[in-house]
Amino acid sequence: METPSATPLPHALPELTDHLGFWLRAVSNHVSHAFAAKLDGKGVTVAEWVMLRALHDTPPAAPSRLAATMGMTRGAITRLADRLIAKGLMVRAAHPDDGRAQTLALTPEGAALLPELAALADRNDAETFDVLSADERETLSRLLKKMVAHRRILAMPLD
Questions:
Q1: N or C: which end of the chain has fewer CB within 10 A?
Q2: Burial 116-127 (b: 16+ CB within 10 A, else e)
Q3: What are phi and psi of 118, to 5 degrees?
Q4: How far apart are CA 77 and CA 70, in angstroms?
Q5: In angstroms, rounded to a whole number, what is the distance separating the alpha carbons of residues 63 and 74?
Q6: pTM of the model
Q7: Are 84 and 13 in contact (CB under 8 A)?
Q8: Computed over its alpha carbons, how large is the radius of gyration of the chain?
């Protein structure tokens, strides 16, 4: 029986580290995991933080509006809201103009927790990006926002 010969690999195969996406993902993973660990100490996930922050300084919001804002399905918003309601950080109520529709709002406990969570987000950014000068951080921010706008990236990063 004849054994199949291996297909030769191209000689000019780039290294993983030759790709900008490799470095972007490495930094993104670090930022995300470090932030998730900080939030875990407060009993909140990154997705829950994003939803709580989306409700800050807004009147009670329809789940469909949050779904559009956060780039999630209504089902995902419902599951996320259920978790936050169980934690006492959010309430669900009938819409004042349409009793069939629902709204979501922060509880006083949820509103009180937000400044602590925002401070953790600020600390996480500071710890990650402290190696860059203020000008370098501004340039990085401007370039990433340019890419997001150009590619019409609408979904909020949740993990």
A1: N
A2: ebeebeeebeee
A3: -65, -40
A4: 9
A5: 6
A6: 0.84
A7: no
A8: 21
Predicted confidence at residue 71, as pLDDT, reads 85
- What's the confidence (pLDDT) of residue 97? 77
Phi/psi at 31 (5° precision): -60, -45
Tens of each residue's pLDDT in the chain, 159 residues: 666 667 776 678 999 999 999 999 999 999 999 999 999 999 999 999 999 999 998 889 999 999 988 888 999 999 999 999 999 999 999 877 777 789 999 999 999 999 999 999 999 999 999 999 999 999 999 999 999 999 998 777 776
Q: Are strands 90-94 and 102-106 parallel, antiparallel or unpaired?
A: antiparallel
Q: Which residues pair with 91 in a beta bridge?
A: 105
Amino acid at 10: P
Distance from C-alpha of 90 to C-alpha of 120, rounded to nearest angstrom: 20
Phi first, then psi: what are they for 73, rounded to 5°? Answer: -80, 160
Q: Return d(Cα 120, Cα 130) in angstroms, integer.
A: 15
Res 153: pLDDT: 87
